[in-house]
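Before relying on records like the one below, remember that each one covers exactly one chain. Contacts with other chains, cofactors or solvent are not represented anywhere in the record.
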Amino acid sequence: MEKHEFAHFSHNLQHDMRIRIYGQGGTPILVFPTQDAMCDNFENFGMIDTLADYLDQGRIQLFCVDTVDAKTWSNVWGDKDWRAGHQEAYYRYIIEEVLPLIRERNHSGRLPVAAGCSLGGLHAAIVFLRRPELFSGLLSLSGVYDAKYFFDGWLNPTLYDNSPIDFLANMEPDHPYIQQYNEKPLILCVGQGAWEDEGRRTTAIMRDIFEAKGIQGTVDFWGYDVDHDWGWWKQQIRYFLPRFVD
């Protein structure tokens, strides 16, 4: 399969960011790494090998981005206002800088799928739920959707915009985004085994919000033997990927 990596300067973040592109065509998938990881995350943990047939057949093209999690979600001793502001800058980086690059490099004419595992699932949910018109679907595996969990219960207006269980709960039932959510595959999946407690808790809250708002997304709880780990995410992505690919 084709593989390219390049660095570019982000005007929103004011430093260089890297992107790895795997494959040469097909449905574009914007991949967010796990917590604190970078664009090589999927390759390092064998997910590229797991998806090799889809990539070799030209059915998908992966755009794997860097994170700034070490400065935002993981920076527990940092100033909370600054951390929230830098996360918002990262969101703008994805929307304003990465998405145009995907449109330039992918020639399928399709909108990208937002995807990720663990904290990457939260990133994917943030961008899709805030701007569904820019994406063709969401696949979030073992995400934690409550930003307050990473900020010791603290929330300001900026962090609110990056906390799906908060902004989605307050969305009006007739908001036009709800119709857009319902026109696209929207999948949240979580196991119920080791290290999945917070993912299971917040995924259950998202399920209840979906039901209350009439959002027809798929919320799937796997078994009590399903841990927060790559072996299960590989099985889950293989299971759900046909929903996103022709």
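Residues 39 and 65 are 5 Å apart (CA to CA).
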